[in-house]
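Tokens in:
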């Protein structure tokens, strides 16, 4: 039986990182529980003190197709290269120069949102079509594929 999955990010600033990834993927902030107009209202009703209200955040695919992304505050910073990373499919079906131009365009958009470009890998047929390695605002690596 297939299972739904959630991708969880340990981070320093859940609100900021969830906003970044929502913009990257076309996701939206998960709505507060029923009966609450805002998360602040819901967290107040749950007796969550103001200094703990950025301990977690979630974003969802509005179409319901992609996994939920969950961001949780942790005290330690990132210490090593990710063992698992996201590939943002910015040029599906494209090859060669057309593919790399589409990836460069998306790289520029994401850099303006706070991502960092790490390295570009040129197409090397037959197996590699070319990609760009990037890092989000908290240095989590991801690829534009």
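Residues out:
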């Amino acid at each position: 039986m297939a299972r739904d999955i959630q991708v969880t990010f340990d981070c320093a600033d859940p609100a900021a990182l969830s906003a970044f990834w929502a913009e990257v993927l076309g996701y939206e902030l998960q709505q507060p529980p029923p009966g609450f107009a805002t998360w602040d209202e819901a967290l107040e009703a749950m007796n969550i003190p103001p200094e703990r209200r950025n301990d977690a955040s979630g974003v969802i695919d509005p179409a319901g197709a992609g996994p939920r992304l969950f961001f949780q505050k942790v005290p330690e910073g990132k210490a090593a290269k990710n063992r698992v990373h996201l590939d943002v499919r910015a040029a599906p079906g494209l090859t060669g120069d057309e593919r790399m131009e589409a990836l460069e365009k998306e790289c520029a958009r994401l850099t303006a949102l706070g991502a960092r470009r790490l390295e570009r890998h040129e197409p090397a047929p037959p197996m590699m079509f070319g990609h760009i390695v990037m890092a989000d605002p908290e240095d989590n690596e991801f690829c534009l594929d």
